């Protein structure tokens, strides 16, 4: 993932024992200078900590090889400072889902270090405005509780290394919502493998009751996957009211991998498409007895 241009700029200033922030994006609460240092405050060159954070959405996933950059932090003190970044608030999830960096890095005067973030837990939340805190400590100055916010697309349930084994062999199951009245639209189906999926086994996704009583129509769809594996769709049981997608790997897929399937030309123009929502999507491996499920809406 490539981070777009960084545009939001904040500086922390010392003014009569307090701190003011340059720029509208970041908040700041306290400054500690309890080691006897006096700092001139009249000019902008007295800026102590510079935070240059992206204004673009940054995606982090469990299969990322490296932490994702969210900005830079500059040491504008006249001394080496130990700089740290931490996550302080994720609106709809535990703060422990993400790990920010650096945890404690020495930065020379006038130098800067990247602020980055990565998954710490295998949880997918989607887009969240995550608040971070930057702190710096030098030999005679300490700056605390400089906060800034970056929009993060949290996809930590995806990818190797972040998924715990489950009895179903699956996790992170997902079926995207549809737009009511649209007669030809794509739908995304996604799941993570928590254990290896052998080439002679399949994953079946059953969309329950979607083709009943003028609801949705999948009969004219085409189905594809991002890999070279086989995937197909068919009208299924329950008097033909269900629709099934069958994923059949060409070779064994390692546990921890994410499978993404796209169903094209889904028809959600039926008179009962929205009224009968939400719909269940049941994910079942052929080599497991337990299943996972998700729901999707039409609106």
What amount of the residues lies in strands? over 45%
Q: Low-confidence runs (pLDDT<50, min 5 residues)? A: 1-46
What would CATH call the homologous superfamily of the largest domain? Immunoglobulins
Overall structural domain count? 2
Level-1 CATH class name of the largest domain: Mainly Beta
CATH topology of the largest domain: Immunoglobulin-like
Following the backbone from N to C, one meets helices and strands in this order, namely EEEEEEEEEEEEEEEEEHEEEE
Rounded mean pLDDT is 82
Distance between the termini: 31 Å
Can you walk me through this structure?
The chain folds into two domains: 6-155, Immunoglobulins (Immunoglobulin-like), CATH 2.60.40.10; 170-296, ntegrin, alpha v. Chain A, domain 3 (Immunoglobulin-like), CATH 2.60.40. The protein has one helix and 21 strands. The longest helix has 4 residues, at 237-240. 1% of the residues lie in helices and 50% in strands. It has a six-stranded antiparallel beta sheet with strand order 2-1-4-6-10-8, with no helix packed on it. Strands 3, 5, 7, 9, 11 and 12 form a six-stranded mixed beta sheet that branches. It has one helix spanning 237-240, and strands spanning 6-15, 18-22, 27-32, 49-54, 58-61, 68-75, 81-89, 98-101, 105-107, 112-119, 124-137, 142-155, 170-175, 185-193, 203-207, 222-225, 230-235, 243-248, 258-266, 279-285, 291-296. The chain has 299 residues and is mainly β. It is elongated and about 75 Å long.
């Amino acid at each position: 993932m490539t981070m777009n241009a960084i545009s939001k700029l904040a500086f922390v200033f010392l003014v009569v024992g307090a701190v003011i922030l340059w720029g509208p994006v970041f908040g700041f609460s306290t400054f500690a200078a309890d080691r006897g240092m006096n700092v001139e405050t009249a000019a902008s060159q007295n800026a102590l900590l510079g935070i240059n954070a992206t204004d673009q959405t940054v995606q982090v996933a469990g299969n990322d090889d490296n932490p994702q950059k969210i900005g830079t932090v500059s040491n504008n003190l006249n001394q080496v400072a130990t700089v740290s970044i931490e996550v302080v608030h994720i609106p709809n999830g535990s703060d422990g889902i993400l790990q920010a960096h650096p945890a404690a890095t020495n930065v020379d005067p006038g130098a800067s270090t990247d602020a980055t973030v990565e998954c710490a837990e295998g949880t997918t939340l989607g887009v969240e405005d995550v608040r971070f805190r930057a702190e710096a400590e030098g030999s005679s100055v300490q700056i605390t509780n400089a906060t800034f916010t970056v929009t993060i697309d949290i996809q930590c349930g995806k990818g190797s290394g972040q998924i715990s084994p489950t009895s179903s062999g699956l996790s992170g199951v997902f079926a995207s919502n549809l737009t009511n009245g649209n007669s030809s639209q794509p739908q995304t189906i996604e799941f993570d493998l928590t254990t290896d999926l052998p080439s002679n086994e399949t994953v079946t996704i059953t969309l329950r009751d979607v083709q009943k009583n003028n609801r949705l129509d999948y009969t004219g769809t085409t189905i594809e996957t991002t890999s070279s594996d086989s995937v197909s769709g068919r009208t299924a049981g329950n008097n033909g009211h269900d629709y099934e997608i069958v994923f059949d790997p060409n070779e064994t897929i390692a546990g921890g991998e994410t499978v993404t399937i796209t169903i094209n030309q889904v028809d959600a123009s039926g008179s009962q498409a929205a009224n009968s929502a939400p719909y269940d999507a049941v994910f079942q491996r052929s080599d497991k007895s337990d299943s996972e499920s998700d729901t999707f809406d039409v609106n």
